[in-house]
Amino acid sequence: DGATYNRINGGQDWKGDDVDSTSSTQLYHSFYLGFKLSPEWKLSYSFTFQEELNKDIQYDIYNKDGSVFATNTRPTGLSYNNQRLNLFGNNLYSNNHLFIMSNFFYEFPTTDMAQNAGFTYGLGIEPVIGIFSSIPGLYHGLRASFVRFFHKRDEFIYKCGTATCTQKNHTATVALSTYIGHNITDKLSLQAEFKFDWDKRGDQADLTRLEEFNANLDDVIEVGPRYFPNKNMSFGTKIQYSLNKLNSRSSAILANFNLSL
Q1: Do residues 224 and 237 touch, judged by C-beta distance below 8 A?
Q2: What is the reported pTM?
């Protein structure tokens, strides 16, 4: 039926249990319009959206005891993400052992979903620490992402039919990854990356309370080559596996194309 694992539909539900990640094949699109402020700093505006291609992709949602509550169908077509204003610094620090670069962003409530949830704005930082290697062609390092989302109300109670429901908005995410790669030639590289992330919801907004971070999306490993025909263009493909549940139903084949004008 064309279903494939998709990390954006993975993770855990409100009980902390793994969700059914059976998903449509997805095309993800991102566009950036930027201006170079200096050799070290670039300002840009990003617009991203995705398209679900396969019809009749079904997934289960579960009761508190783990039994199936309902079987739903994934929506098809286009969906959009909040737009961002980015400030990227490509050489914040460097020495003989490592270098640091980072993106800083402000997120706007541009989607209907964000506006309906009372989302007002988001602030984020995405640093990269690259570690120099004495082995020719080898590179490795760490990536991180810290995002704080602000809402009119982080958590509130409301009536849903005859029941009382609690709405817990997404208030923060933290993602960490480690990567290692090798430049096989000046145009071809092979890279592996381990990705982990956590979130906070509702009244867990205090980022200093580390014990309140929840498991968010599935932790994954991605391995694949990337080809650079020239300095403004690249093609890549990856195999992605969920570290939470290692099986073919929790995997994906990813392909991407980057073009800079």
Answers
A1: yes
A2: 0.87
